[in-house]
Specification:
Structural class: alpha+beta
Distance between the termini: 73 Å
Strand order of the largest sheet: 2-1-3
CATH class of the domain at 4-99: Alpha Beta
CATH topology of the domain at 4-99: GIY-YIG endonuclease
Number of helices: 11
Length: 274
């Protein structure tokens, strides 16, 4: 049980819209403002500094604070569109957060649900994809970043550079798993997508897929430019390096080692298509 339980109201200092909620905490100065769906969107739009929270009433247990939400929601008229609350009870119909009746649960999971057994059409999926393409989310605030850092403190997977993070047994298991992915033991060793397509679909379909992949890569890279900083980083990384070019036995081109291993030799398109 937390030390403090209370009902609060948070006000948008720009448009004066308000949000009523309940909260339990051990620290009254935890900078908590609210967590409603519409309210979170407003936070993203205006920023936390544009909101101010006020404690309306304290309670001994959180359940009473949950029940009291609807009283203050009605008193301050914070239901959308006048405020940021969606439910007149604060989403706590029986005073307990997230508590739904069995009838409501059955409607959500059963055939009474309007989406039960339905699948999105290709047109609907495409509309969703187009809508989310290039979508930008607001940058994380310093407070958000600090909370993430604190939440990960002591987590084993984040203790980088420290010894004793994994047990000897765990290290042995990881070593054995890694040994199965080396050279010939790797199921994809020496194979290309074209080889797999040839075996699965035949030569004609494999050639079509290969051409589609090339066209897609060409379109993706078209008109792509690098910033001056990016070009300088590449230049600095390669400064002083001398590459001895290798001649491909299949196409006859002289290629630097990096591109040779990737696109030529046994992977040369002329050799592959023979």
């Amino acid at each position: 049980m937390k030390k403090y339980n209370y009902v609060y109201i948070t006000t948008n200092l720009i448009n004066e819209k308000q949000y009523v909620g309940s909260h339990e905490t051990d620290n009254l100065n935890d900078n908590y403002l609210g967590s409603g769906t519409l309210f979170r969107r407003a936070i993203q739009k205006y920023g936390k500094e544009k909101f101010k929270r006020k404690i309306l009433k304290k309670y001994k247990i959180i359940e009473k604070a949950r029940l009291a939400e609807k009283v203050f929601i009605k008193k301050f008229n914070t239901i959308h569109p006048y405020g940021y609350n969606i439910s007149p009870t604060g989403g706590n119909d029986r005073g307990i957060k997230g508590c739904m009746s069995e009838e409501t649960k059955e409607k959500l999971r059963g055939k009474n649900n309007g989406m039960y057994g339905k699948k999105l059409s290709e047109e609907a999926i495409e509309r969703i994809r187009v809508k989310n393409t290039g979508r930008k989310f607001p940058p994380r605030t310093k407070e958000h970043i600090e909370r993430l850092k604190n939440s990960l403190k002591g987590h084993k997977s984040w203790n980088k550079g420290k010894t004793g993070v994994f047990s000897k047994e765990a290290l042995e298991k990881m070593s054995q798993a890694a040994s199965l992915r080396i050279a010939e033991k790797n199921t994809m060793y020496g194979k290309t997508l074209y080889n797999i397509w040839m075996k699965k679909y035949g030569e004609e379909e494999a050639n079509i897929r290969l051409q589609n992949m090339k066209d897609k890569m060409s379109t993706t890279r078209k008109d792509k430019t690098f910033t001056d900083k990016h070009c300088k980083n590449i230049s600095d990384a390669r400064m002083g390096l001398i590459y001895e070019k290798i001649k491909c036995p299949h196409c006859g081109k002289e290629i630097d080692p990096g591109n040779y291993g990737r696109w030529h030799g046994d992977k040369c398109k002329i050799f592959v298509n023979i």
